[in-house]
Amino acid sequence: MQYSQCDRIERLRERIENRKIGDDVCFFCANHYEKSSMSMEHVFPRWLLEKFNIWDDKIFLLNKTTISYRQLLVPCCVQCNNKHLSKIERDVKFVSENGVKAVADFKLSLFLWLSKIWYGMLYKELFLPYDRSIHEFGNILDGEIINQYCDHLELMQAARDEIILKDFDPFSIFAFECQTVDTPSLNYDYLDDAITMVSAMRMGKVGIIIVFQDGGAQRGFADALYKEVPYPLHPFQFREICSKIIYKESLRDRTPKRMAIEAPGQIPQYYQLPLLGLSLKPYYRTWEMEPYAKYLSAYTGIDIKDIYKPPDKIRTWLVDGNNQPLYIPFTN
Ligand SMILES: [Zn+2]
Fold it and tell me: Which residues contact 331 (CB under 8 A, 6 or more apart)?
């Protein structure tokens, strides 16, 4: 097939939109390969499972069943696995060892890495039956659902240097110092929300939360949030902050606009248009306590009755009764 020099973006989009699902298609780049060029990739990398001793821990799937981290493998081409994704793994491993201060230099790697995990989880669900005893129900996810995330998969190709995100982050990232204890598995936590596309991981002394697709809109609230938490977080506090960020993202009323520019022989460059643009519509709808309480309950596992008293009394673990930052010691 002959291609002109200027249709890389078109080909990339076509490849992603027409992706096939199978053992011979890479979950990450959506290219089709001979079986000999394919490998199986751990959605959550081996170094992470080793470091926090969570190989046999379980994680929830969308149908509320669980699967062990060990079993979360997806088909991945050798090139993505050995070249592009392993560079990102090295960066994130460095952050996990060096804490919050290392985050600024590796924002893009963290975004791509958590995206890989988030997308890899969804992708895995294409292969798993909804009900393991009744196969007629089909699998947990079907190809149509995964196709809703074509746009995100396209951005993820920045990991393969197929596109360049030029002077902007399509995401908001938050990093918090977290307390640790002697038991490795307690120093780890992961959660995500498929609807708002927010993903969070606490790995040792650093907790990362990323809003994948807000164009950086929540970053404006980061300083206020950091002021509320001058101490290293207790795991529960990390979950409370996740709930706040996920709920906030559910209130977003505008979609960031990007454009892609491609010059002959150059890697396509993506730009983001100014977030507020010309519209006067507020970026977020109004925060309300009751729906927020539902998120807080879902992500902390505490019954809503125990955290919310209508119309606006809600529990917090971030500040005390005098609105002063709260330090909660984390013990084994
Ligand atoms: Zn690949």
Answer: 181
